[in-house]
Each structure stands twice: as C-alpha cells, then as structure tokens.
Specification:
This protein has 366 residues and is mostly beta strands. It has four helices and 16 strands. It has helices at 2-19, 66-69, 88-91, 266-274; strands at 25-34, 50-58, 75-84, 93-106, 111-124, 143-155, 160-172, 183-196, 216-228, 237-251, 254-265, 286-298, 301-310, 322-329, 341-351, 354-365.
Length: 366
C-alpha cells in the first residue's frame, strides 16, 4: 500500500506539471468507496469495501481545440488513482493513469452535471500465480486496461468546486492472458477541484478553416490482428479479423458504422488440436458476424464502440452478441478529410461483457 501511494504521488506530479502549462485549468483530489462485484463462485473472499484515491488535472471547456467546440465544449481530464479491491492479500491494489473525456449535460452555473468516460492503463500489484497466489482467479497479468464511466455533480464557489460522482470502474487484460474474469466496481466518490488561471495567449480554432460538412456514406475495409492465450501461462496465438461495411457521417465529429465480419481465433483451434480432439472440423472455428458501431472523434483520436450478432455457431461460443470498444488514431485530421482516410486502432473484443481478445486494427475508408 505504501509503494502504491509513492507511485500515486509521482503520477500526481505528472498531472500537476502538465496542468501548469495551460490556461484556466483545475487540479483536484478525491476519495471514493465501492464494492467489488464477485462475478464467480470461487471469487476471492472480500473482507470489506473497495477504497479509491484519485488526483486529477482538468482542462477548461473554454479552450481553442476543434474537438472541444465540436462536442459542446467537452473537456479533458487526466487522473492518477490508487484503488483497493477488498482483499489485499489475494488481489492487491491498482495504480492507474487515465484520460477522461467530460461532456456537459447540465450547466446552470454554479451547478454542473457531466458525463465522464475514460480508458487508460492500470498496474495491479498482485495477479494469479499457480504456485504463490492460486486464490486470485480473477486477473492473470499485472498490466491491465482501466475503463471507467462516471456521472459528476458539482457546485462552484469562486475558485473551489466540490463534487460528487457515481462511477462504474472496470479492470481487464482483454483476455490476453488467462484468467481474466475482470474486476467491476460500482463506487461513490467525493472531492474538490481548485480552479486556477495561468496567463497564456491561446489561438482560437477557426471553424471556417474546415471544409463544408455534408452528410455522406463512406465504404470501408478493415483488418485486425488479435492476440490471446487460452490457458494460464500458455503461449500466445493470433486472432485474424477481416470486415467491411459503410460509415454514415451524420455529424462532423460522429459517425455510425455497419459491417460484416469474418474472424478466426487460432488459440481456440490449437487448443483442441493439441489435445487430439476430433469433435470439430476446421470450419467449426470460423466466426461470422453482423455489427453496428458508433465513433466519437476528438481531434485525431476516435472512441469506438460496437455491438453485433454472430451469424453462426462456433467452438467456445459464449454469447450470441459480440461487443467491442477501442481507440482509433487518424494520421490526417478526420474533421478535414472524410474521404480517403486511413486509421490504426487498439481494441478489446468481448462476448457481450466477457473479454475475448486484444486486437490491433488497420482500416481505410474511401
């Protein structure tokens, strides 16, 4: 726990130093408490609630970026956190660093209400070990993704802004290594923000510099390469994914996607092959799916989420519904270039809510 606080202090310095270089920003500190959801009969015994400490740097919504103006003055938060899970002996603590996007739902000053969504990384101090930590059947890696969704209510008095949040926190390695039940924590958090101002001239983003926006459909193709291990401490095997479809750009910063997909998880196939199973043919491991997705653009980055339906039965199928979340990066600013655009992304694929594999994707729209 003491080492965790030292690392939290170091990450807090990163947030603080980064915040000093900007105009009209806020620094915050908060404490939260929640309960880890035991999602398996052999989940480690929970001895108490989950405690959550966080420091943050928050940008002002009145900034000069395209992404903020195109998303109703959305703001960026960078948080450093330390969290316990209710069983330090088996599950340890999590030290996280997470960027959050904040969207204004209601702002009748001095009150404010924001929806916050974030995806970052977390280091878990304890993981499953077949010799030393067999009770932790939850997470098989130290490094994990850290996803959070929050609803924040705040009241500003001068430079100070106390707040409270209702949050859902999720830790997972994307099934890159077994086990990976995932850690889910509903939590309540309270804290305070200190708003400060650094005098610095900022250039306003000139929206007239962007080309005229027209709603349009764009066909696309996309290739993915995933990586997963079916058994604990086992070898990694690739997952091959190909899909194509169309995007509908209904706003400059948002688009709807629809596509058809083929995928093949060689880890599952090799597991049965190595065990000499003759129950299935090669084609029984192929997966076909139809899916719908949505992407929010923030500068050169896009937050992508999708849900779909598997069109055939396949080996190790855990659900009819594939889901996926991830971040895409666009070398060319997507607000300006709707046509002939390439991207690369990191995504987590799941059976509904149960992670299946981590994937690197490359795509191109025409």
């Amino acid at each position: 726990m003491r080492k965790g606080f030292k690392l939290l202090f170091f990450l807090s310095l990163i947030c603080f130093c980064y915040g000093l270089s900007a105009q009209d920003r806020a620094l915050g500190i908060g404490y939260g408490m929640g309960y880890t959801i035991a999602n398996h009969p052999r989940f480690p015994k929970l001895n108490g609630p989950s405690h959550y400490f966080e420091t943050s740097w928050t940008s002002s919504p009145e900034n000069s970026r395209y992404w903020s103006k195109l998303n109703q003055k959305a703001s960026l938060n960078l948080t450093a956190s330390l969290q316990t899970f209710g069983n330090n002996a088996a599950m340890g603590e999590a030290i996280g660093l997470t960027p959050l996007m904040s969207f204004n739902l209601l702002k009748p000053a001095p009150f404010s209400m924001q929806l916050q969504m974030g995806w970052g990384i977390a280091f878990l101090t304890k993981k499953f070990n077949s010799f030393y930590n067999t009770t932790n059947i939850v997470i098989g890696t130290n490094l994990n993704s850290y996803v959070s969704g929050r609803l924040q209510l705040a009241y500003r008095v001068g430079d100070w802004e106390p707040f409270m949040k209702v949050s859902l926190l999720h830790y997972s390695n994307g099934n890159a290594m077994s086990p990976n039940l995932g850690i889910n924590i509903p939590a309540f958090q309270t804290g305070i923000l200190w708003h400060y101002n650094v005098k610095k001239i900022a250039m306003e983003a000139d929206m007239s510099m962007l080309p005229e926006f027209k709603r349009r459909f764009s066909p696309f193709v996309q290739l993915g390469l995933g990586m997963t291990a079916t058994v604990s401490r086992g070898p990694f095997f690739p997952v091959y994914v190909v899909n194509s479809g169309a995007q509908w750009h209904y706003k400059r910063s948002r688009s709807l996607w629809a596509g058809l997909e083929y995928s093949f998880n060689s880890s599952v196939y090799q597991f049965f092959e190595n065990n000499g199973s003759s129950l299935y043919e090669r084609k029984d491991f192929d997966r076909y799916a139809f899916w719908l997705g949505h992407e929010w653009l923030f500068g050169r980055f896009g937050f992508f989420a999708m849900g779909g339906l598997y069109l055939n039965k396949h080996v190790y199928q855990r659900s009819l519904f594939p889901t996926q979340t991830g971040l895409n990066f666009y070398p060319r600013l997507p607000y300006k270039y709707l046509k002939n655009q390439a991207w690369i992304g990191v995504h987590i694929r799941a059976y509904f809510g149960l992670a299946d594999y981590v994937m690197l994707q490359m795509g191109y729209r025409f």
